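Annual report, structural modelling task.

Input specification for the magnesium ion complex:
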Amino acid sequence: MNRIITLDEFILRREKDFPFATGELTSLLRDIGVAAKIVNREVNKAGLINILGVADSENTSGDTVQKLDLYANEKLISCLQNSGECAGIASEEDETFVPLQAVGKKPSKYVVVFDPLDGSSNIDVNVSVGTIFGIYRRVTDSNDSCQLEDFLQPGTELVAAGYVLYGTSTLLVYTTGRGVNGFTLDPSIGEFCLSHRDIKIPDSGRYYSVNQGYYLKFDVEMRRYIDHCSDMNLRLRYIGSMVSDVHRMLFQGGIFLYPNTRKYPNGKLRLLYECNPLAFVVEQAGGKAITCQLQRILDIHPSELHQRVTIAIGSPLMVDEMKEFVQRYNPVIVGNGMM
Ligand code: AHM
Ligand code: MG
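The model returned the following structure:
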């Protein structure tokens, strides 16, 4: 039998690879692992207790908030607060960032961004949801409380990012910029155990993932590309939970798209909480992530916390092919030099 490597052990081993590591990042990743276990417990018993259903509020992006979103948000914040290794958080569920400081500790040099429960409209029907997170090194003085600039950094500055998928099993996948590794939660021992080492996305795949119900609202180049996917007999898969759809692409190859529509002229998904962390993971696994206007996701300099972007993410050859359709059918984008 192979020896089990737990998430904690793996993170500690990796820390030793960085000669000047202070252990702060290690602790942060462990805190996120602990929060993930707590959220997992609640997601699993969501059908049993009265936390299902829609809370009486909307998030700052105008979407309806489910009760479990709020629970996951609170748990992540309290886990990160308790250890004192995080100077502040910005969450999809909060209007603005929240500075954190543990009693008796000086502020940390890291901040964390997250979508506590992505795909939450799926909870009531028992379909997979996930947590997405990203960690940045602060750009402001770490003796003071964190500032907005600490969060408004391009994805190229991410120190670590990942997601937790609460699916048929619970998986935590993360990268610190040296490959991508996946850990499956073994409920019998309550530990995330290394199950997917050095994940590589297939160069191409048989799946495409897009809300095809919006087909007529997409720009012509997207419609032509989607027609092409259909002509090629690719299989359409769309869970409505980005983290789950991207997870499929990561393992089986394919492309996930969320283009601009009339309702969401800049795309629906959030740059900080969803697109950047997943783009970092996918790029680290050998994939690509660009906007439907052909800008690399990780290069975008955010101007606000809840900024939305369009996205095409997945297998490198498929993202390149989508790019060719944009170049062919939208000369304006090509003329603007967005490539
Ligand atoms: P959420 O963070 O409020 O759950 O919204 C994001 C989700 C993504 O997970 C998913 O890909 C998308 O919204 C689905 O949107 P749509 O229903 O417009 O296809
Ligand atoms: Mg989300």
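Residues 130 and 292 are 24 Å apart (CA to CA).
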